[in-house]
Amino acid sequence: MNLSERIASRIRREGPISFADFQEMALYEEPDGFFASGGGAGRAGRDFVTSPEVGSLFGMLVARYLDKVWQKLGAPDPFVVVEAGAGRGRLAADVLRASPACAPALRYVLVERSARLRDEQRERLTLEPADEALGPFVHGADADDAPQSVPGTGPIVSSLDTVPAISFDGVVIANELLDNLPVHIVERAADGWCEVRVALDDATFVETLVPAPPELSKEADHVAGNVDAPAGARVPVTQAIRGWLERAATMLRRGEVLIVDYADETDGLIQRGSEWLRTYAAHDRGTAPLVAPGMQDITCDVPLGYLRSAAARAGFAVTSETTQVDWLRDLGIDELVAEGTAIWNEGAAKGDLEAIAGRSRAVEAAALTDRSGLGAHKVLTLERRIA
Ligand SMILES: C[S@@+](CC[C@H](N)C(=O)[O-])C[C@H]1O[C@@H](n2cnc3c(N)ncnc32)[C@H](O)[C@@H]1O
Fold this sequence. Notes:
The protein is 35% helix and 26% strand. The chain is of the alpha/beta class. Strands 6-3-2-7-12-19-18 form a 7-stranded mixed sheet, with helices on both faces. Helix 7 (214-224) crosses helix 10 and helix 12 (333-347) packs antiparallel against helix 13 (353-368). It is globular, with a radius of gyration of 22 Å. The termini are far apart. The mean pLDDT is 95. The chain binds S-adenosylmethionine. S-adenosylmethionine (SAM) is lined by residues 35, 40-41, 50, 52-53, 84-87, 111-114, 117, 175-177, 180-181.
């Protein structure tokens, strides 16, 4: 049975399923879900371009950000970076290539649920076995002492399919992850919320509305916040953000969660109808979300109000909230572009690789800071609230 047939058979068995369940299967079910079959971010032959896939500049700036957090934490060793939704490992490779000051302390853990994409990470990274992700340990003089990590043995890079069950000082990064978490869709009715479910009309997937279960209605109220949603208005409820943030909270002893994604306030989402739910394939917009499961990405703007409320409920404080363009300016993107131009001017005659990379920084910066594209992404940092 192909993916469409498996989804159809589940609906025949269970009745209409949530949009989140449909999306979960369409994107992640082995072997033919969209990401499970190797679809995703990249240039030629891929489906959409994310900031890391624009070029190396984004990773250089993330490396600067990591150094800032490392210094702020007092230069801990080990300093653990968990990159969730790491795709093919482009960001990790560029961070390491930038040789951040924290590198000797760095344990970089890529977390990617698609086995196909985890395999592709090996083309650009030397990955250590997962049980060595935190590097070598030595035992204390006393048999009862906890084992101590050996300092200065980084960078150590490893890859997992799910977030590790460890607690650490460091950073959890999610670049364009939350928009791909399965989302419930609700519609405002005169007397509460309805849930959009996926049903079958012959062999065609169609929407059907049912009264939203109480737990989903409660979460929908968190999305609406103090916005009075008119009857008929639809909003996304990315409930999976809650679980993800709760796991991040248990991992992070000291440090930050960095979230970069397209996101919108609730009134913006309502004004845009259902435009916040999109599909992509082969660098183009795809067809309707219920058509061709597995053949296209299904992605949803992150509901910002809900993200803030989920963060607070998981015990985080939002410590900064800005746009990608302003975040990258603060990290010194203009200075890196000027440096690249100088490298090009010095090496242009020889046309060596370093000179060409220097020149391409200006083009990359224009894409990364484009206010009608990647530059408009929201960047939030979260820290654990001290009780
Ligand atoms: C839009 S892509 C972004 C990839 C990469 N971060 C980038 O910016 O190029 C989202 C990735 O997150 C992965 N993903 C989705 N949910 C995940 C989860 N719960 N844990 C780990 N990876 C996940 C997908 O398989 C996909 O590779």
